[in-house]
Description:
Layout lengths: L4 E4 L1 H9 L5 E6 L1 H8 L9 E3 L2 H14 L11 E5 L7 H10 L3 E6 L4 H13 L4 E5 L8 H7 L7 E5 L2 H10 L2 E6 L9 H6 L3 E7 L7 H4 L4 E3 L12 H13 L3
Helix pairs in contact: 5-6, 5-10
Amino acid sequence: xxxxxxxVGIHSIxxxxxxxxxxIVKLVATEDARDEIKKICNLDKxxxxxxxxxxxxxxxxxxxxxxxxxxxxxxxxxFLVSQPLQELETRELYDLAKAGNLRILCLDQISDVHxxxxxxxxxxxxxxxxxxxxxxxxxGTTPTYFRIASGAHEYLKLIKVNNLAKTISKLKELDTLxxxxxxxxxxxxxxxxxAKKSGNVALVLGKEETGISHAVMRVLDKKMSIKTQGEIRxxxxxxxxxxxxxxxxxxS
Length: 252
């Protein structure tokens, strides 16, 4: 395989198996892990390789190496090998935006895989339709990502773009309210204003250390913040994502 997803974590494995768009190569598992997965989903059409716990780790180590990753112990005695899911094309994104009422999340150069996976899990919880990522300087779909995302990857439409600022500008032309989260913004997230918006809404979060890039910040409709009640003004980006997604897309 030239490219493949190495999926670990029971929840992520089950979600991938249940995804009709997945082209699954094989499930490698101990007998106990296989039985645990069978309680949740049907494995009749899946190529299952039953191996020892030691063999799971050895085979996993080899596949980590094939992907150019440092080996990490495979949890739960199982992993899934699959062809990658097809990402959205730019044309498809704009067609969806024309239809209206999209919930969009843009992640500007968020590189930490733990934060990225946690954010996508939260995004799926809040019914986000599309996640937009820059093609460079973004976290990758590593086994760690799949484990932490806990299946969210299977339910979200992802697209990687060469120029996030240009993409956001085009979305604005398609009736999209664009909101950037910044600790320096004086205006706080206005849940009522967002709820009244009839078109698309795009929430933009910036990289862990420096926030949203200047190029993206310049094209946004709104720069908003989360009100602090203490001395610390900033939050971990995955925590900030959870709060801002609740304010933007939560049930009012």
